Amino acid sequence: MSKPIRILHVVVNMNRGGAETLIMNLYRNMDRSKVQFDFLTCREGVFDSEIKELGGTIHRIPYIEAGHFGYIRSLNMFFSNNNDYTIVHSHLNKMSGFVVRAAKKHGIPYCISHSHNTSGEGGILAKSYKWYSGMFISSNTDYTFACSHTAAKWLFGKSNEAKLLNNGIELEKFSYSPDIRLLKRRELGISDQLVIGHVGRFTKQKNHKFLIEVFAEFVKRRPDSILLLCGDGVLRKDIENRVIELNIQDKVKFLGVRSDINQLLQAFDIFLFPSLHEGLPVTLIEAQAAGIPCLISDEITNEVDLGLGLMEFLQLKSKDLWVTKLEKFKVNKIERQTSKLKILRDRGYDIKNTAKWLQDFYILNSR
Description:
Radius of gyration: 21 Å
Number of strands: 13
Strand order of the largest sheet: 3-2-1-4-5-6-7
CATH topology of the largest domain: Rossmann fold
CATH superfamily of the largest domain: Glycogen Phosphorylase B
CATH class of the largest domain: Alpha Beta
Strand content: 15-25%
Helix content: 40-55%
Number of domains: 2
Order of helices and strands: EHEHEHEHEHHEHEHHEHEHEHEHEEHHHH
Oligomer: single chain
CATH architecture of the largest domain: 3-Layer(aba) Sandwich
Structural class: alpha/beta
Shape: globular
Number of helices: 17
Largest sheet: 7 strands, parallel
């Protein structure tokens, strides 16, 4: 029996971000006797142990904090010693430029640059540096992938040539269950309260400050409501402090990084997602599979609306508008129990189909 082909995925770390969740969903649903994933990372991640259990190898190099020349030297040294990969699949957005340049320099046949967002993080210096890296993408990339047309246009300058790889999920795991809803609410000490939820890293992009200020105003009008925040990140402490300043700490639960998001979503009544920018969030696909109404920023591509009647786009300039929309919300448990899975599957968001397509793509380009 022939050995599986090994694909090198390049990420900063394998934590529970949108891109990383997609990669793991793909990995779990690949025929690993045919295709195996290895990873080039810069930091430890929560998925590391599972990757090793699935048969993957994790390589580590210092990230850019070591300085530009140190990072480039590390990339070149890595690919000089690991140039037997046929395909390198980079998920670093504009920072993919340095990766694919080093990979091509050391003879990697095929490089994929994958866009997962529609804007970069950081100040002027950081964005300028990423722009410089992005200049090397076009000349060193064989295939461009993106989660949406908007994400493709942002990173590659055009959207019609990139292959759209849907942020698929394991649909059945997110299908609404009243039993799991009751179980999770009991675990969290929640009874008949209105539960507003959010899933995402505590970074500027996710706009948590706006979110909790909207909630602080709303809870004055609906004291029976509670906010669940899933995730972690550099701004978590700032948001915890702001919650205390607003005197709503008894109404907000910080749940940290969770492995049971599919079950926690059952406890939500409404999903609040005021991001400043997004590619096409996996969490919103998951929320739609669970039948949760979502109030989301109009800065997010309308490609995320899969036609289930669950998405409402709102402008970020008015907190009052978000509060008013929340006030009008009525829990519709009958609607939650209506299966949405066939529509999502028909729209191409079943991870089994996405993984099979990508598996065939990898095999075809590894011959």
